[in-house]
UniProtKB/TrEMBL annotation:
Domain named Aspartate/glutamate/uridylate kinase: residues: 2-207
Gene symbol of the encoding locus: pyrH
Source organism: Magnetofaba australis IT-1
Family: Belongs to the UMP kinase family.
Region annotation Involved in allosteric activation by GTP: where it falls in the sequence: 12-17
Assembly description: Homohexamer.
Pathway(s) per entry: Pyrimidine metabolism; CTP biosynthesis via de novo pathway; UDP from UMP (UMPK route): step 1/1
Protein's UniProt name: Uridylate kinase
SUPFAM superfamilies: Carbamate kinase-like
Protein's cellular compartments: Cytoplasm
Function: Catalyzes the reversible phosphorylation of UMP to UDP.
Main location: cytoplasm
Enzyme Commission designation: 2.7.4.22
Entry GO terms, CC: cytoplasm
Length: 231
């Protein structure tokens, strides 16, 4: 499986950056899932540090700002690697923007080989291209490694009829089709990511990163998640 981890959630209660205790909790949830015998790859977001479309980027050339956003995901990935290794899980970081003194470059076959060697693979720097998001990077990498499901670990416990953070009356869905997500313009993931998953018949699960055991529950077939797949 490929898990897209919210960057923004990694800051915990802080207004910016990383909360080491929370990163450690997330790492332990992933370790528990990995111990269930599942091959796990991760894509990490960067919203806790920098987004190319944020107010901090006003006045910057968009490609430059997006490069900064992609570098933010590298910081998050390395923090997660450190937390995973502290828990004894062998982990490899592969980056879409080459930085040989820091970590390995993305290479699909090597990533699959690492997974077969029981390592958790963390993909960072998104797709390596500006004007994309880490949701799209997650969909792309999931297709490349032939993942059976893409799980989005985010700040809400599923997909709602509207953003539940802004609209308390929003209704939660247990299941949706890709066509429904697109037709209702549900914004939990960007449309490029949804379209890529639909074209490749890759199901998506959306669940809360804050809920302990939610990841293991998805694996156990009792998901506290919204599942998006073709109808
Ligand atoms: N229809 C919807 N259902 C659920 N959440 C929605 C919906 N529309 C908007 N959202 C919002 O989308 C957010 C998740 O999107 P986003 O990818 O921007 O955040 P993220 O997972 O924290 O990623 P990042 O890694 O960029 O920090 C949720 O926290 C929620 O507030
Ligand atoms: O493929 C990609 C992925 C990301 N970016 C830039 O990084 C930030 C952080 O990613 P989030 O998905 O928002 O967490 C994003 O705002 C982009 O600026 C990118 O350019 N290309």
């Amino acid at each position: 499986m490929l898990i897209k981890l919210s960057g923004e959630a990694l800051m915990g209660d802080r207004g910016y950056g990383l909360d080491p205790d929370f990163v450690s909790e997330v790492a332990s949830e992933i370790r528990n899932a990995h111990q269930m015998g599942v091959q796990i790859a991760l894509v990490v977001g960067g919203g806790n540090i920098f987004r190319g479309v944020s107010s901090s980027a006003v006045g910057m050339q968009r490609s430059r700002a997006d490069q900064m956003g992609m570098l933010a995901t590298v910081i998050n990935g390395l923090a997660l690697q450190s937390a995973m290794e502290t828990l004894g899980v062998e982990t490899v970081v592969q980056t879409a923007l080459e930085m040989p003194k820091v970590t390995e470059a993305f290479q699909r076959d090597r990533a699959v080989a690492h997974l077969n060697e029981n390592r958790v693979v963390i993909f960072v720097a998104g797709t390596g291209n500006p004007f994309f998001t880490t949701d799209t990077a997650a969909a792309l990498r999931a297709c490349e490694i032939d993942a059976e499901i893409l799980l989005k670990a985010t700040k809400v416990d599923g997909v709602y009829s509207a953003d539940p953070v802004k609209d308390p009356a929003a209704q939660r869905y247990d299941r949706l089709t890709f066509t429904e997500v697109l037709a209702k313009d549900l914004k939990v993931m960007d449309l490029t990511a949804i379209t890529l998953c639909r074209e490749n018949a890759l199901p998506i699960g959306v669940f809360s990163i804050y809920e302990k055991g939610a990841l293991a529950a998805v694996l156990g077939g009792q998901p506290k998640a919204t599942i998006i797949e073709e109808g």
